[in-house]
Amino acid sequence: MGECGLVSIAICSCCFFSSTCANKYGVINPDVGTLLYHLASKIKLQISHNIALLSKLVAERKLDTTQRIDAALEYLLQNIEGTVSVEKLEKHCGVGVVVTPEEIEREVEILIKKHKDEILEKRYRFNSGPLMQEVRKILQWADGKAVKSEIEIQLLVLLGPKSETDLAPVSKQKQVKAKPAVKKSDKMDEKTEKIEEEKSSEARTISELMKTKVHFHKPGENYKTEGYVITPNTHNLLKEHLKVTGGKVRTRFPPEPNGILHIGHAKAININFGYAEAHDGVCYLRYDDTNPEKEEEKFFIAIREMVEWLGYKPAKITYSSDNFQQLYEWAIKLIEKGLAYVCHQKSEEMKGFNPPPSPWRERPISESLQLFQDMKNGKLEEGEATLRMKLTLEEGKQDPVAYRIKYFPHHRTGDQWCIYPTYDYTHCLCDSLENITHSLCTKEFQSRRSSYYWLCNALDIYCPVQWEYGRLNVGYTVVSKRKIAKLIDEGFVNDWDDPRLFTLTALRRRGFPAEAINNFCAQMGVTGAQVVVDPAALEAAVRDVLNITAPRMMAVLNPVRVTISNYSDEGPRTINVPDFPSEPEKGRHDIIFDDTVYIEESDFKENAEKGFRRLTPNQSVGLKHAGVVITLQSVEKDASGNITNLIVKQQAVSDTNKPKAFIHWVAKPSLASVRLYEPLFRHKNPEDQNEVPNGYLSDINSQSKKEVVGYVDAGILDNAKPFTQYQFERIGFFSVDPDTKPGKLVFNRTVTLKEDSAKV
Ligand SMILES: *[C@@H]1O[C@H](CO)[C@@H](O)[C@H](O)[C@H]1NC(C)=O
Ligand SMILES: *[C@@H]1O[C@H](CO)[C@@H](O)[C@H](O)[C@H]1NC(C)=O
Ligand SMILES: *[C@@H]1O[C@H](CO)[C@@H](O)[C@H](O)[C@H]1NC(C)=O
Ligand SMILES: *[C@@H]1O[C@H](CO)[C@@H](O)[C@H](O)[C@H]1NC(C)=O
Ligand SMILES: *[C@@H]1O[C@H](CO)[C@@H](O)[C@H](O)[C@H]1NC(C)=O
Ligand SMILES: *[C@@H]1O[C@H](CO)[C@@H](O)[C@H](O)[C@H]1NC(C)=O
């Protein structure tokens, strides 16, 4: 027996069992082994000193199921202070409670009866997961496997063997559409993968994602999370914290107000606001304004506008700078405790992988206190001194900087300060001050987690829990502020909100509905993996929303004139058509039919290849909504051989006269300028040296913006308010541009109808 009091088994590389316990008892019972494995993989650092006790209980078959082990771990986390009462622990885990097969059978019977109608309707597609949970609610210590097989048996008795329809694949409609093209980055650290997410099915909305797929700790149960550091005062602080928050979730979205928000921020906004909203909590918008040089009023306004555009309302707007005084006082406290010191290394010296340790690390506390005063009072030059914390970050970086000198007036505090706190120092302290329950941030900050906990604990203040999620990157674009600025300067795009960019203002301008962006973020999930998503996945989410909200119209972008030689009506005819063919009750509009109509140039071919289903010299085609089929009689051309007119005859559509296809058309048209956008870059990763050796500016797609003059139905004019969105049948989704004037409509294309739609 080794020092941990346990039988031999190599459990896992990070296990708590010392090697000295190996090979004493030889082989152990495989069930016990499985349970020990479960124990080793679930136990958290903060209760790992109980490992010997727990393993003993497993070996004695007192903790004989994974549920009992989970209950034991739960109990220990709840009762982290004081000594463990084994009796109470066993009671909590139901040690000795026996659930008989008869009891299980009875409970399953009752539940199956209760859900009988639904089961008969859905048959084997009935989801029995919730039944299992219900049984467990009543028979807490029932064995999971036994319950599952009992349910299966009773379902079989009720439904009989599976029929052919039971075995047929689920109908297309139910399958999740537009599976995003997600590329996982090569490295995903399993052990540090923090956010448990069920990957089996995607969520469609943020609310669904946050309610069903994300399992963060409950407010006040911070200590249950992996890696959380517990101090003697933790439980008191948590109690205080719960009093203030009333046990509600409190998150924050903390952008630095020094740039424009982009699609990646949309994820941060959705995760922070979405998590709070889904759990009846609140979310603050906190401007992390600690770098005075980079801040401008316009960024503050734009950030707030975008948060609101995405549909969220901050419970409160706060500023890191509001806490400058408190942060300063805490810095003094750290110095007094010997946990921070003033350093004179130059910033170049501190850079790189393995910078030399600071020679000032051990200077007397009184000296650091005096120098910090001097820093604050403007007695030192910029770069001459910093305040550093005595701690080592995960990646080995030593003593991160807490304060630096900057002679630059601050947007809100003016000249009051010439020392400014860093992200590492400010972030966790502001989270603590605001009593944030879940500090949600992107994966890059995982390496700052220990410093986060260290600092809160060094100051003996409430310590929130940091959770990381995967950053969202979209391909075929750049999002860095500097790079976009360059694109604007060089005239490749017009401004920060040019519809070809992926800033949030640009997406709004292009007509992407906020709902679609939020759904897209939900589809991406919260996992810790780095992803580069193809914009096609975002466009698919946009189509899903616009398909339901954008009424249909007919427009022809490359018109060819068609004359109907035996037009039957006297003058133009008005046809009333539904805005949404599959849901006619949602509204209707009028279109005009006449002896001259315009069709898309590409819908006619003189020499058609096989499989072309539209108009050819010997193939008729139907005109949508008009109820007629047209057949070509002759083609008129100009001197250069271009088609100027197609002379056709019309016939009513009937059972015996059905064309292969129906095309869109416009009669009595209004002119419209239509702007068509394509990806700004030709490569998915324009910033990647290998993909684009000459830099992102060399990768611009010169065809990324085109403008064509087309025809739209005159009826559209009445409703063409700027930003109204339409689906041009068979072409795509378009929004009315504010440049629209009477007699001249302007549209921007939001997305094409299908991912691979023909380019116009
Ligand atoms: C945070 O909680 C502390 C007590 O733990 C309280 O004094 C303080 O007012 C709270 N601040 C906010 C913004 O909720
Ligand atoms: C658009 O919505 C209709 C139902 O209103 C549906 O039948 C159709 O498949 C949808 N199209 C796309 C591209 O999602
Ligand atoms: C137009 O001509 C076609 C073909 O000759 C004929 O079938 C159709 O009835 C005519 N329609 C009218 C309205 O004259
Ligand atoms: C239509 O005409 C093309 C050539 O213009 C010919 O190849 C094709 O076989 C014709 N189809 C029919 C159905 O007559
Ligand atoms: C004929 O069509 C070509 C290609 O679409 C175009 O460049 C040319 O200007 C047209 N000619 C006339 C006289 O419209
Ligand atoms: C259309 O694009 C132009 C820039 O090309 C932009 O100025 C305008 O705001 C856009 N309009 C809409 C409704 O997206």
Describe the structure.
There is one protein chain. This protein has 760 residues and is of the alpha/beta class. Among the domains are: 3-92, no CATH class; 101-161, Arc Repressor Mutant, subunit A; 323-423, Glutamyl-tRNA Synthetase, Domain 3 (Glutamyl-tRNA Synthetase, domain 3, Alpha-Beta Complex); 481-552 and 673-752, Ribosomal Protein L25, Chain P, CATH 2.40.240; 561-579 and 590-665, Ribosomal Protein L25, Chain P. It is 31% helix and 18% strand. It is built from 22 helices and 28 strands. The strands form seven sheets. Strands 13-26-27-28-24-25-14 form a seven-stranded mixed beta sheet, covered by helices on one side. A seven-stranded mixed beta sheet has the order 22-19-20-21-15-18-23, with no helix packed on it. A hairpin with a 4-residue loop joins β19 and β20 (628-637). α1 (30-42) runs parallel beside α3, α10 crosses α12 (263-278) and α21 crosses α22 (535-549). It is flat and about 100 Å long. The relative contact order is 0.07. The model is unreliable at 1-26 and 172-201 (pLDDT under 50). It binds 2-acetamido-2-deoxy-beta-D-glucopyranose (6 copies). It comes from Neodiprion lecontei (Redheaded pine sawfly). It is an enzyme of class 6 (ligase). This is glutamine--tRNA ligase.
